[in-house]
Q: What sequence folds into this?
């Protein structure tokens, strides 16, 4: 394999790094939104106790996002080491490293898959939290509406 071919092969894992960077960006945005929501709920002194269950659920979402971020970061390390090892193998004239190179690349792919699973779990939690509090809010509004109708009929 000539040097140009080695460079082409070394670039392949870099595309995976680029994909992981996009996933990290998405995860960072999700994390920021969840943290902001937790801060908003925590700063509402009069309603802190009523928001406690939502804060706990949001914190669980935050842990899933954190796990996804860790997985993507580990994947980036595997892909970068894979790329460097491809170059080093060529530079040193060794041809017996293909199993190690493939193993590192596959570990990187497994880390990406793990991160995507964590984001999937987080998205499911986000849906469940939203549904739960939407239903709870509608129930409370219905009770308020019933109370208003009862009190208005008394006058």
A:
């Amino acid at each position: 394999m000539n040097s140009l071919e080695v460079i082409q092969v070394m670039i392949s894992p870099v595309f995976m790094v680029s994909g992981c960077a996009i996933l990290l960006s998405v995860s960072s945005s999700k994390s920021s939104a969840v943290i902001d929501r937790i801060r908003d709920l925590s700063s509402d002194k009069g309603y802190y106790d009523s928001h406690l269950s939502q804060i706990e659920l949001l914190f669980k979402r935050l842990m899933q996002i954190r796990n996804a971020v860790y997985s993507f970061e580990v994947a980036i390390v595997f892909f970068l080491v894979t790329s460097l090892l491809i170059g080093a193998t060529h530079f040193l004239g060794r041809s017996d490293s293909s199993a190690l190179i493939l193993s590192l690349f596959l570990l990187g792919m497994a880390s990406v898959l793990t991160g995507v699973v964590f984001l999937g779990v987080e998205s499911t939690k986000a849906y469940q939290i939203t549904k739960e509090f939407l239903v709870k809010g509608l129930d409370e509004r219905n009770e308020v509406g019933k109370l208003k109708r009862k009190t208005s009929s008394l006058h």
